[in-house]
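COMPLEX REQUEST
Ligand: phosphoenolpyruvate
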Amino acid sequence: MDKLLIRGGRRLDGRVTISGAKNAALPQMCAALLTHEPVHLVNVPRLHDVRTMRQLLDHMGVVSTTHGERGGMSFAAPDTLRPEAPYALVKTMRASVLALGPLLARFGRARVSLPGGCAIGARPVDQHIKGLSAMGALIEVEHGDIVARLPEGQKRLRGARITTDMITVTGTENLMMAACLAEGETVLENAAQEPEVSDLAEMLIAMGARIEGHGSSSIRIQGVARLAGCTHQVVADRIEAGTFACAVAATGGDVLLEHARLDHMEALADKLRSAGVTLTPGADGLRVQSPGGAALVAQGFRTMEYPGFPTDMQAQFMALNLVAQGSTTVTETIFENRFMHVQELMRLGAEIMVDGRVATVAGGARLTGATVMATDLRASASLVIAGLVAEGETVVDRIYHLDRGYDAMEDKLRQLGADIERIQ
Ligand SMILES: CC(=O)N[C@H]1[C@@H](OP(=O)(O)OP(=O)(O)OC[C@H]2O[C@@H](n3ccc(=O)[nH]c3=O)[C@H](O)[C@@H]2O)O[C@H](CO)[C@@H](O)[C@@H]1O
Ligand SMILES: C=C(OP(=O)(O)O)C(=O)O
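STATUS: Structure written out below.
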């Protein structure tokens, strides 16, 4: 099993290219299921999750090819494909549930294994099922699979007004994709406003979908009978950009995050600026300058749906708070079990107290290297950041979590001057 070996204490300087967003590329690959025409994506990140999604699409009968230097991938989903997502592929990646809406909308039936609970929380998909049911689908759970079909004699889903009980990102995406091929109008209330939802909407519009209001909490979709192929560029990954920004903030340095979009990271940017980090947007990306963690002021925050502070940045900003000055509280409001990095950060010398959804973090820590275990994707990133500032050697074990969502993270960090290598 691969590990990362980090010798801490180096500044980060230079330029690094931010890849396309995992959380945009995965739904966009599923959107290719909505048409038999070829769909071309550009700027697809090289990630384990992307490979898993490709395997899942291949399993169904989608023909996929990769091309070009810039993460080009094409998909063609024939009318004869098998609308099934088996457990073996779904279990490693919750985003596989994004196949459900498109399959049901185009083929009138789908069998998608129910994604189980995972490390960061229970993560049910009841809202996806509730929404598709409101559009007329008959849905049952059989042998661990979500089995969905249209009633006898009905060819298409029917538009509906759907208000989800909570804001759900993949729920909004699944329902938006399904609504594109439904008969009549669908209105999604309490919709997620994440940039990845808007990027998916833009792609669907390029395929011929009629969508308005994406980026707001109310999305209106007029269904069409068929969608066409398209070429679409995956938006830059605001979480990868945020992770590198926190790394530079903690180690000190001056780095240009090429392609990063400040307008997609305002809540995080506010906290970084208040801490004492200088952020300068420019034509080719976002410049991050920091005097180093010890010269920064730690910042308390609560995770919220977009445009609030992203839960996917909680662990990385906590690592920064450890080395900045002052005690802070970090409140996780989205997932009930997203503090697993705390135990591991404490192995590096952190002082953190967790009480339910609130962690109290003592700043000004003197971190020292140790062997730590990655427990989930963003927890892994926080351990890497802590390792970059810790004295001596840190080994981060189980980095398959990291590989699920970061494109060549250690290569990018090494390019900026970090002493980091992948070991067996
Ligand atoms: C592939 C992808 O885009 N993943 C992101 C997506 O996950 P994902 O779309 O799975 O997260 P959701 O926005 O759906 O989850 C938000 C909250 O709603 C709950 N919930 C959700 C759906 C549902 O049917 N029932 C229910 O109870 C969840 O358990 C969670 O507590 O948004 C999360 C929140 O920003 C991010 O951390 C993930 O990186
Ligand atoms: C939790 C995450 O992803 P996923 O929804 O794919 O598990 C994440 O990207 O931090």
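REMARKS: DSSP finds 14 helices and 24 strands in the chain. The mean pLDDT is 97.
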